[in-house]
Design goal:
Pfam families: SIR2. It comes from Larinioides sclopetarius. One of its GO terms (cellular component) is mitochondrial matrix. There is one protein chain. The longest helix is centred in the N-terminal third of the chain and has 19 residues. This protein has 306 residues and is α/β, with parallel strands linked by helices. The strands form 2 sheets. It has a 6-stranded parallel beta sheet with strand order 3-2-1-7-8-9, sandwiched between helices. Strands 5-4-6 form a 3-stranded antiparallel beta sheet. It is globular and about 55 Å long. It is built from 13 helices and 9 strands. Strand 4 and strand 5 form a beta hairpin. The structure holds zinc ion. Zinc ion (ZN) binds next to loops.
Amino acid sequence: MAMKIKNISGSGIFNLYRSKHYQFVPKHEPCNPDSVSLLQEFFNKYSEVFVLTGAGVSTESGLPDYRSKDVGLYDRSPNRPVLYKDFVSKIEVRKRYWARNFAGWKLFSSTQPNEVHKFLSLWEQKESLHWLVTQNVDRLHHKAGSQNVTELHGTSYLVKCLSCSNLFSRNLFQVILRELNPDFNVESTEIAPDADVHLNPELTKSFNVPDCEKCGGILKPDVVFFGENVPKEKVFELYEKVEKSDAVLVLGSSLEVVYSGYRFVLMASELKKCIGIINIGPTRADKLATFKITARCGDILPKIKL
Ligand SMILES: [Zn+2]
């Protein structure tokens, strides 16, 4: 039986995106064929590409970002990420942070890589991707199989002692927190970019947070908090990667964060390298770009032949 194929308008597709995994993807139009051709040319030409990914890549896995209009955390909630200085100086802030992170962990850690993560992993296997840097702390590139990855802002999947640098798995910490808080039965259905979900403050006051078992130091997720700097060695290593690459591709980032990857795009610009940007919204580096494609990364990248 012949099927009648209905023309799907831009807004129809948009409605499709709004459902399920796409609830945190900002409003956008489908990418046009010219953009696909342009991007294909880029992929044909460059073979040592430095790629930088941001929250816009993870929104397609069902994780919200902070800044996007309407769908970002800042637009939907009065909550703001905890500041480094508050975390290290106030026990009540650490109790609140870990209680919320504990409640949000199951959902956060169950997120899966999407088409973009899978594409980048495949690209790495084809040996044309020089290095992948992500501003995300969700481990989704690793889950997709990428190996040459630097997590610019660290990862939520590790816990670190601020005194002795003892480092261990966040999943193990979940077991420890459960043992110390047997009566804390709150599991969040909300999801946040770093698992920091909102809970009633009364609930978090009595949450038990352990110190480092080796030295008694403060335990913190191995994530660069707001008000904290990316380690210098990491930045210098990445400057070298930019130098050795022949082009830079920015995916799903507005590059607005203070300690963001903007500096690498700036360096690439000074070195006169080709800079491509794919993002739904404007970015801080649009003026530096050789080309800018306004699109959802997961809409355009799977159309590229590697
Ligand atoms: Zn320690």
